[in-house]
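Sample intake sheet
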Amino acid sequence: MAVIGTFGSFTAARLGIYASQASLNVTGNNISNINTKGYTRQRMDLVSLHSAGSARYANSYNLDIGYGVIADSVSQLRDPFLDIRYRDEQSKLGEAETRLDGLNQLAHILDEVGKGDGEFGIVEAQFNDFLAQLEVLHRNAGDGTNDTIVRSSAESLVRLLNNYATAMDSAKETMMEDLKDKVSSVNNILTQIRDLNVAIREAGIYHQNALELRDERNVLIDDLSKYIKIDVRYSMEKLDEFSEVEKLSISIADSGNPPIELINGIYGAQLEMPETTAMRNPAYDPSDPKCCRYISRNSKLDAVPPVIQYTDNEREALEIGGQKVTNDAPGEGIAGVTFDPDKIHDPTKNGKYLIKNADGTQTTTDDPDAATQVNNAVKGADDNRLWMQVTALVDERGRYIKDKYGNDIDEIHELGDTALTGSLQALRELLTEEGEFSSAEDIAFDSDANTKRGIPYYEHALDALAKRFADEFNKANQLEFDQMKDAYVTAAVPAGGTDMFFVDAEGNQIMIDDPEHPGQQIPLTADYFKDAKDELAKLRENYTKEPDPQKKQELNEQIKQLENETYSAMETLRQEGKLTEAYRYYNGGVLFSNHGDNNDGSNITAKNISISKGWATEKVRLLNTKQPWDEEDHSTLQDNIDHMITMMQTTKWSFYANDVVPDADEGDKDYFKGTFQELLAKMNLTLGNDQRDTGTLYNSYAITSLSRDNDRQSVSGVDLNDEATSMMIFQKSYSAACQLITTLDSMLDKLINGTIR
């Protein structure tokens, strides 16, 4: 480098003025944006101006010096590693925050936990009141007034259960709408990021940094990380042989190889959550070559030979015979590679979706339209899956991204139960997870399903309480099966025959619904209840011995069906039959039904439990005893009321998940054993523990996230002290450069004018 000429010194000083002024402008911009959300501190990049080569008349006495300073560009002070750590923490924080909000909503509904002060909750207090009224009835044998008071207390109890169940339904609907809103928010963010990528790319082509657009994009990426855990990658995209621009890509974290992309430069995807969707195949493994995740829709697998096409990115994840897979012309198969039949995808064996056949068998398919359709996001449905899909990547004009062979990459990616994290996943689990009530199918999709508890778990737990409470009191207030033949009049029909039937007051046969022929009726035989008891005992014995879960479920459903049919027949007999002299006092019957205008004690839930029509109209009363009349003061016997009090106070009931969810995976094992009130306490204790644990996680993530953000701000945030220091430095350098020009001017004046004199 040659020594600069005399007037070159003026250029060096002038460049120093420009550099100082530009740096002061950047500093001023930093200070003015100190409170701007997402703003990244900017820096003027200064480089020394130099000349290549050597001077024409160089000699050993010349010293090499520079030509001044150049304001090269403005850059941002940002650490991508800190961004990654912050966004990972934001995903955890978003998930914990959303889950905690949902649990808090449940706590407000289930008042026992919502108070949080250790007092009795509303339902707990009402159980105590119901027990107290039974004890009063016990002390006042034969007093009809006390029966009415017990019924009034029971009415309050069932209304509370109804209200709790209805409130949980309302909470589910609210959360469902919230989830849909969040999906829309994610899609809006993805669209905005894609559009910003387009603008930043265009700026990059013209060698502009577009720093403000990058800040706007970073804010959106931070927002996105609360909904989904994401991986953000920066790479260079070649425009031609001589130039390239930066490209940003975003994928779902831990979504496989290759990952499921949400953004690829100027291409973006969307999340979809249709109301109904094809039933997924839980055995489908996208990482297994036989599942052919990497095969394009354009392939024709049933052709001979198969026509296999792979997208450019996906090809890298699959090898056959140690060779990379290549696309081939139609009909040519895979060039140079012998096809292994085991690696040819068979949709009937390992397809993406399930077809559930009428005979209980299942087959698979790749055609979502041919698969069994299930409720996915249907308003009011109790069996929504809330599965999501990621659409194919498209640009702002709707064109697919292409591989290097020119094929459209138009694959739709199905997201399973555990594919997401963040607030989207938290809401999905709040709306779908059933804990101990999970089915084998649920566990196939998510191995931890039986340890995750959302609103459905608490709904089922409340249903289990309501159902067992109603069933046991209904049984307690009706005669045993063995007593029915003695309690009601039977007769041979026709007279003189050998077949005995239950008859009404006029001697007519009492008819019941034929379980084998819906819509038809059959006479109620005298041995019906004895036969039903024997059949139930046989079914329960088979259920205990049966090792196959599927067959156990079928036996359990048979038991419930037979019980419902038998108790329905008992209610028909109560209404139409004629009591024998020994049971002329009998006024027992169904106390709780599934609707207030009937006496049907089957299929009771917390939402529909009601005081039966018979009890409400006083045609049914609380049964003091089940013993036959013995000419003594029969009305003073209270053994059945004693039994009911014991049922409330000390009886430890075994609660099974398949009592309310027939296909529960561990339905044959009791998930709780205790009194009715202990089950209520257990349910609320579980909710309280979930709240506490989630709250602890939330606080931990919030502190860590704040720490990560502080780390980021220490690098990319604007610090007023630093900027003030920079301002003084550049002001002094500006003054020094101006002084240099003044000094050079004085020197030249002396040289020129002084030499002439």
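Comment: The chain has a mean pLDDT of 85. The chain is about 45% helix and 10% strand.
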